[in-house]
TrEMBL record, chain A:
InterPro entries cross-referenced by the UniProt entry: MetI-like, MetI-like_sf
Designated name of the protein: Carbohydrate ABC transporter permease
Domain ABC transmembrane type-1: 100-306
Family: Belongs to the binding-protein-dependent transport system permease family.
Membrane topology: Multi-pass membrane protein
Originating organism: Terriglobus aquaticus
SUPFAM superfamilies in the record: MetI-like
Subcellular location: Cell membrane
Domain of life of the native organism: Bacteria
Taxonomy of the source species: Bacteria, Pseudomonadati, Acidobacteriota, Terriglobia, Terriglobales
From TrEMBL, chain B:
Cross-referenced Pfam families: BPD_transp_1
Transmembrane residue ranges: 69-90, 97-116, 149-170, 208-229, 255-275
Organism: Terriglobus aquaticus
Protein name: Carbohydrate ABC transporter permease
UniProt similarity note: Belongs to the binding-protein-dependent transport system permease family.
Amino acid sequence: MRPSAEVAIFPGEDVGVSPHASAPVALRGRRPPRITGGLLKYVFLSLGAVVMVVPFVDMLLGSLRTVPERLARPPIYLPAHPQWQNFIRVFHDLPMAQWLTNSVMVTTSITIIQLLTSSAAGYALAKFRFRGRDLILRCILGAQMFPFFLFLIPMFFILRFWPFAGGNSWLGQGGAGFLSSYAGLILPFAVSWYGIFMMRQFMVSIPDDLLDAARVDGASELRIFFTVVLPLARTALATLSIFVFIYQWNEVIWSMTATRIAPKLQTVPVGIFLMRQAFTDERTFSLQQASLVVSVIPVLILFLFLQRYYVRGVTAGAVKG
Amino acid sequence: MRNRLTPYLFLSPALLYAAIFFLLPLGLALTLAFTNFQAFAPHHFVGLHNFSYLLTRDPFFLTTVRNTLVFAVGSLALAIPLSLLVAYTISRSRFKAFWRCIFWLPMATNVVAVAFEWKFLLDGPTGLVNHLLDLLHLPGPGWLSNPHLALLSVILVFVWMTLGSNMLLLSAGLESLDESTFEAARIDGANAVQIFTRIALPLLRPTLLFVMTTDLIIGLSSFPLMLVMTEGGPAQSTTVTALYMYQMAFTDLRLGRASAAAFILFLLIFAITMVQLRLLRKGGLEGYA
């Protein structure tokens, strides 16, 4: 086991996609592969890759088929005349533009808010000694063990009957509370215990001397946080932001629950799920698959470009071997 | 004075959130579980009635618990060896980043799209899976319409979906092992299987246990896949407890009883996690708090 500061903070650094990949890993790559074992390895991986990719390919091909091609038995897999207009119909026949707007608004807000709350709390837990610090840290780790389904029902009521919100009286009656606006979709995800823990792990490595120097220069604590700490933490912030963005873009259970009152606020996955009754006719299957493609494409592109950060986000909280 | 309050200032958003969106809902959920709360009907305190009803008289609740356990344990039993095999193979191949990227693809995708797409693929007459079986002259079953197969189908899709994250965590563990240990074993004449089982596996134990713990919690509490693919059917064969709770709450509007169901499931998860954490601590929980 290799004791190294960077591994302790981000085990993901060592996954091999990083330019800092460690020496043993590089050596491993240079070893001449044995022919039989080597071939078997790539056959196995290729088969696996096919299983992973086929649903995405089928999704795309399915969205381009005509109705007769869709209904043919046995099924026709390559569409003779790709129906690209299915993608226009997704925007024309469905409120896809509204769903996308909602998804972008909610996901972006949650990402920005979580970056702020996670880095602030992570900073406090990493760089200050104060009463209750270890207890708070332990509670944050413990809180991650509470599954989200436990909060679904009470969260719905808290946001629905919040006093003075969304036309509610002080008793929480009369309006729809926070559930009539984006706030209802954003507030439950304003803080992430995982995000705090991840930022804390990163910020432990920021040198105390740097912060003390800024204090001696008379900078206020908030100023130090925004002008010294946050710029130093930008790698961790990038990692957290891409991780949160992809996670929240794909979140469906809370969004579905919260938008029961205001269907106008439905996000892309919720919209697609709730449209399923309108889609039971086989002739709409191509349209349905086109809407799946639209829901998958934006975040898939983002992921392919930024997957290195994503990897770090996933592995940051894990134990090292 | 200012210095002593500073950390609390930075922590205040998180503490406020913990009070409003963590402790308050927990208390509320526990309170609701002891009432017969339904959306628009008068409600009152009913003591342990919800709990006793669910555990002794509800026709489906215990079935859903059984389904939950089968789902969680089944997907764990499939996912761990498979993702370990993939992670180990990738760590010994060229183009690591490429392979990893492919296996992560489902992770970047929303569960609704995944579930709908697999519904198409597993569909009896038109689906690709049965079409391929047909080409091999094998009878294609009704993957999602057969009550004996539906849970297995959902498990397989779940394993497909989560393979990437497991593989990733195990890869991180594998990469942090010291290559010189493997070299030494190789010089001593150990073969690939021996190296894997005698050296890689024991060294990987902490990572493995971590992955197993998080996977089990996720497996026991996950329900979106079943909600979209089967809505719990056919014949309740894919209704897991969390899905049952969701439907009880937001379709039947039996919120008190649903809260009780949520707590029973939570206690089950909590008990299992505690057992696993004991194992984790024995396995050496490094760098985790």
